[in-house]
Structures are given as structure tokens and as C-alpha cells.
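Regression test case RT-17, inverse folding.

Input:
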């Protein structure tokens, strides 16, 4: 029997049909690229475009949240003091201060305490309920220009409306008082404040 006939008998018609289907399926799943190389991941470019687009969208949506809020203290003689708030470090204190400032609470109040190391403003009487102290979870230091909530010496959770501005580094106060802001303009004005000097207004800068 000729060799060609023997080969034909080795692959009867049903088997040859199955083999043909397998070959066609492989061609569909693994197309040949322009270089003659199988490309099983031919949809990678589509996936990559989607991921790139998603990443861009997330980035664009996160930008508006990066703006900072600041306070502007205008003194009776026209001096300007700008304080950048730190809500990530003291959300409760910042919320309280912003509420009071929006209501005009500090307008016309004097700096009733003036020391060589700080100045302080607010009302001595407890006109509002105290807020919880946030000093224990803070990664801040009492450095020159830092702004913190005043409180009763024996009560960590007793801050109401009074706040102080450091005129020098005060490491002994670290971890003892809640810091909520930092002076970024007008430190020379603070150093000249005398007891009784009034803040004409305190407003919010966006």
C-alpha cells in the first residue's frame, strides 16, 4: 500500500474534521501580528487606554480639594496678620474658629493677654460649650508663629473661644495645647501688640 494511503487511514474523516476545527479556533484566539508573531493579548492597548483615562479623571477630581483657608486679622491701626488654618491637624478647633469668625465674634475684641512669649484674644467667660482637646494626636510644635486654643490649666477639653499666637518657640507647651494654625504674614505686627490693642476684624480668606 502506498505511504500516502497509509497516512490517510491514520486520520479518518471525523478526526480530520475535529483537527480542522481546532486549527480554526486557534487562529481566531491567537491572531498573527504584522511580524508573524502570535499576539494572545491583542486587547492590551484598549485596557491601557481605559486605565490611563481613569487615572486622569481621578487626578482632575482631586485638585479642587487642595485649597487652604486662612484668617485675616486687621488691627485697629491697619496692621494685617494672616493665619493659615490646619484642619487636618485640628478639625474641631478650626470648625469652632471659623464659626465664630463668620459671626463676627472677634471683631473689636482686645488682645487681653500680652506676654513676652505670646498674645491672646477671645472672651474670658465661657459663652460656648468647650470642645475636645486635639493636642494628643498632633504632629506639630509650639514654634514662633503657631496659633493654638487656650484652655483651663487643669482641663484638656475646656477650650471655647480664646486663642493665642506664639511670639517665640515654646517647647514646654508641646502636646499640652491644641494647635490649629500658623502665621504666614504679619509676625512683625504681632510682636508690637500691646495689652488692650484691638482687632478691628477677623475675616476668612479663601
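Golden output:
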Amino acid at each position: 500500500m502506498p505511504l500516502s494511503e497509509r497516512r490517510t487511514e491514520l486520520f479518518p474523516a471525523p478526526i480530520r474534521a475535529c483537527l480542522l476545527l481546532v486549527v480554526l479556533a486557534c487562529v481566531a484566539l491567537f491572531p498573527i501580528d504584522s511580524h508573524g508573531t502570535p499576539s494572545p493579548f491583542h486587547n492590551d492597548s484598549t485596557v491601557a487606554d481605559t486605565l490611563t483615562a481613569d487615572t486622569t479623571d481621578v487626578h482632575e477630581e482631586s485638585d479642587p480639594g487642595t485649597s487652604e483657608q486662612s484668617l485675616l486679622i486687621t488691627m485697629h491701626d491697619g496692621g494685617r496678620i494672616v493665619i493659615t488654618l490646619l484642619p487636618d491637624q485640628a478639625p474641631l478647633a478650626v470648625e469652632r474658629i471659623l464659626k465664630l469668625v463668620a459671626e463676627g465674634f472677634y471683631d473689636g475684641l482686645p488682645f487681653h493677654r500680652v506676654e513676652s512669649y505670646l498674645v491672646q484674644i477671645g472672651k474670658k467667660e465661657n459663652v460656648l460649650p468647650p470642645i475636645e482637646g486635639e493636642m494628643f494626636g498632633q504632629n506639630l510644635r509650639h514654634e514662633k508663629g503657631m496659633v493654638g486654643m487656650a484652655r483651663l490649666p487643669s482641663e484638656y477639653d475646656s477650650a471655647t473661644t480664646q486663642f493665642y499666637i506664639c511670639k517665640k518657640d515654646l517647647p514646654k507647651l508641646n502636646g499640652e495645647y491644641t494647635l490649629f494654625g500658623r502665621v504666614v504674614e504679619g509676625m512683625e505686627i504681632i510682636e508690637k501688640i500691646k495689652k488692650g490693642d484691638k482687632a478691628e476684624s477677623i475675616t476668612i480668606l479663601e
